[in-house]
Structure prediction request, 199 residues.
Amino acid sequence: METIIFATKNKGKIKEINAILADMDVKVISMEEAGIDIDVVEDGTTFEENAMKKAVEVMQVSQKITLSDDSGLEIDYMDKAPGVYSARFMGEDTPYVDRFDAIFGKLRGVEEERRTARFVSCIAAAFPDGRKLLSYDTVEGMIGWEAKGENGFGYDPIFYVPEKGRYMAELSPEEKNAISHRGKALRKMKVLLKKEMEK
Ligand code: IMP
Prediction:
């Protein structure tokens, strides 16, 4: 069984990706489990750039196939902000409830049709022999009028998912994985990885 590194410190993401790759003959472990402790500076201006940078830098240390993801929220009315800066929007340590208030403030009086937003996920894979793969997907929704739900993380409580008629944070983890940007991008990456690993 091949061990693959996932360049994240987030244990939730490892569980998610292992569940999605369950039918492949691979085991995905975190940087911590692999004994790798490096900080990759996410200074790219696109999700693709940041994801690939993380995958390549960690692969250079691990010398194993390394996956990484970069994700964020694009709010159309705010010119697609916070985008690649989602984690750092208003400061990394700013509680999400304060960020929600600021976003609701910017969208005050803005009607439903112009509150469109999407979560974006870009997954990168870097192989020790230099091969690289990228996958990208989104989930479309809108910024709601209140923060609702206890599940998920980040901006999930203010992201209304029209196809579900609920806020993202009201969905169970299984429901979220089935429709989410990351779930969809990971499933695309699985197809690419399978093909590449057979070569
Ligand atoms: P990163 O890809 O781990 O750097 O995450 C970027 C940031 O985007 C997170 O810290 C969250 O603020 C936001 N984000 C990414 N995915 C999600 C999601 O599924 N729900 C809510 N917020 C998310």
